[in-house]
Amino acid sequence: MDKKTKILIPEIPGDWTARIRSGHLNIWNEALHGRPHRNGLPEVRMEPPEKGLYAERIGEAWYWVCGCERCLDRGKGYSYIVCHEHDRCITCHTHNTELPKNMTRWGKREGFRCGTCQDHLDATRKADALAKAAASGHSESDCSYTDAILCPHCASEQSSDDRYEDEAEAECGVCGGLYSLELHYSVSYTTMVAGKAPA
Q1: CA max distance for the chain
Q2: Alpha-carbon separation of residue 177 from 56, 106, 153 (angstroms)
Q3: Residue 118 parent element (H or E)
Q4: CA separation (Å) from 144 to 78, 135, 156?
Q5: d(C-alpha 67, C-alpha 51), whole Å
Q6: HSE on the CB side for 183, CA within 13 Å?
Q7: For the segment 73-119, what is each residue's pLDDT rounded down to a tens digit?
Q8: Burial of residue 72, with CB atoms counted within 10 A of its CB: 0-12 exposed, 13-18 middle, 19 or more buried
Q9: What percent helix, strand, coil does the chain show, rounded to 5?
Q10: Nearest residue to 15 (alpha-carbon basis) of 62, 63, 47
Q11: What does DSSP assign to residue 197?
């Protein structure tokens, strides 16, 4: 794709400004819950003529322009949309159209990783973590009263997001081992003046 692509969209008036994107779909004056947009203008939905383009208002008109981060040479930043050429697994580089339709695609910052590559990566991470834990003599006692949640099987640190109470059973995100989780809280005290000071 040419990163300098700039194709006029004559169907969209230049004074329209309410446009959102949903993947490759561009929506002007989105109607919500069956009600027209607050500006009273009709809703229009359009897909670009080529994958990787999106609508941008330039001056007083709308154009299809390149939105693929790879084509724009912006490094490995998050790409909201990609062109046909760059729609590939970031690990094995197999094109999306060549992968089975029912295969999971794992969204990543640079694009997607196919299910086969993700399974291989997960298996390697699991084997490495278990080997490292065994080599260091890791045991369940290393997981008591720690600042982070550690897997008692492989010593991998687990996410503490949204964990506010004990869990009877949780699964390690690295090795898949099951463990229970107890949360421990420390007590602190605050005092404030509530009446006259002693004489």
Answers
A1: 86
A2: 48, 22, 6
A3: helix 115-135
A4: 38, 20, 14
A5: 9
A6: 9
A7: 876 667 778 899 999 999 999 999 999 999 999 988 888 999 999 99
A8: middle
A9: 15, 25, 60
A10: 62
A11: P
Helix H or strand E segment including 28: strand 25-28
The proportion of the chain whose per-residue pLDDT surpasses 70, expressed as a percent, equals: 98
Domain boundaries, the chain: 1-77, 88-137, 142-185
Q: What is the pLDDT of residues 10-38, one digit of tens each?
A: 999 999 999 999 888 999 999 988 888 88
Question: Is the pTM higher than 0.85?
Answer: no
Give the pair of three-digit tokens for residue 80: 């909201």
Helices and strands per DSSP (H, E), number in the chain? 1, 12
Which of 109, 114, 7, 106 has its CA nearest to residue 52? 7
Record the tokens describing residue 167, joined without a space: 């869990």
Cβ 53 vs Cβ 63: under 8 Å? no
